[in-house]
Amino acid sequence: MSTRFQAVSIADYEEEALKVMGGDAIAFYNSGSDGEETLKENRFSSTRYRIRPRIMRGISHVDMTSSILGHSITFPVCVAPSAWHRFANLKGEVETAKGVTSAGVVMNLSSVATVRTEEVTSSFPDGLFFMQCYCLGNKRLQELMLREAKRQGFKAIVLSVDCSVISKRRKQFGPSMLERINSEMLPINYMQNEESSRRAEEEGPAAFLEYFMNMAHGATPVGLDFIRWIKDTSELPVITKGILTGKAAREAVEHGADAVWISNHGGRQLDFSPSTLDVLTEVVDALKGTNAEIYIDSGFRSGSDVFKALALGARAVFLGRPILWGLAVRGSDGVRDVLDIIKEELRLCMMLSGCPDINSITKNHVINESDYLAAKL
Ligand SMILES: Cc1cc2nc3c(=O)[nH]c(=O)nc-3n(C[C@H](O)[C@H](O)[C@H](O)COP(=O)(O)O)c2cc1C
To answer: Does the pLDDT value for residue 212 go beyond 90?
Structure first.
């Protein structure tokens, strides 16, 4: 960890994480799928949207508080599920949760968390945790995981619907990562009280990793009814993550989803899938008349990026890699700092746009560059 490191923006954390992390692991975190077209798109899509400020609104401070599924959060930026935090910090997800809970926002735990979920949830009893899961090949195991989530106090299940198979990634686990997986860490949350999971564990890390990959990404042929099953079994609200069209959003909600999460998985799954900001309006229109909340992620790196998503109709923005960069560079302090940087940028953006609170950020505050130029002709 660099003691003198001080960041002005998220880009500083990205640059520093490249220096402090091992080459294999940061390449794994930062890479995307196939030709990385969607990954590149995520970097630039926000620049196509311009902010239209109101002036002289008599504002001396802004209120950034909001809520998710009825739970209060200090500002509408939360933490997306990402696997393998122990590559960034030896304490893994416990360290991440320390930063996130101190910031007063939601943390998603990946079902490939490298620390037992109970260790995380019991360390921060006041934390707001959502549990991410895949559509597993073993329904019994899935059922056990869902019941555990409820018991451990998770507030919602995030069902990732864009991962039935793993895409062709630019950079999968490199040799140094495999070495560490073999010697010290596993996606241990799949081991809970289930026969096949326990047997695979006993066979050793390589067998267990293979077991897990087949279980989570072995093309389990689930249909939309699965959403209702997850909801009924877990007795928790369900969020479908990986929605990219209005039709998919509508279908998910009709089948029981309480919220939809627009995501292209940070450019790591279907290449050439669109930027999430570009599909937000379509999803908002498709969900008119429902109570479903809309979240978004993939490529959000600044307060003005967040402002644009809120203006176009998202209730909250989730961060993936920036949290991992913060974790790698300064542990929980880095995680907290990443969130604080974005929060301060959002505050300034709201002040400069004439928005005293989150609800006053409307679609009139943002315009796509192409419409803007056309309007001026
Ligand atoms: C290293 C890494 C691991 C991830 N692991 C998961 C996961 O286990 N489950 C999941 O639903 N999404 C996972 N994601 C996707 C994130 O939840 C999120 O959609 C994405 O990172 C958002 O894009 P951003 O990184 O540009 O902010 C992962 C992303 C990264 C970068």
So the answer is: no
Decide if 339 is inside a domain: yes
Note whether residue 2 is domain-resident: no
Note whether residue 335 is domain-resident.
Answer: yes
Based on the structure, what is the number of domains in the chain? 1
Q: Are 149 and 180 contacting, i.e. CB atoms less than 8 angstroms apart?
A: no
| Best residue among 177, 265, 324, 335 to mutate for probing ligand 1, ranked by most atoms within 8 Å of CB | 265
Q: Which residues have CB under 6 Å of ligand 1? A: 29, 42, 80-83, 110, 112, 132, 160, 241, 263, 265-266, 268, 297-300, 319-321
The closest-lying atom of ligand 1 relative to the alpha carbon of residue 241 is: 11
Give the residue among 28, 47, 31, 82 at the shortest CA–CA distance from 277: 47
To the question of pTM greater than 0.70 for the whole model, the response is yes
- In the predicted structure, residue 2 carries a pLDDT above the cut 70: no
CB 231 within 8 A of CB 238: yes
- Examine the residue annotation and report whether 61 is marked as an active-site residue of this protein: no
Amino acid at 311: A
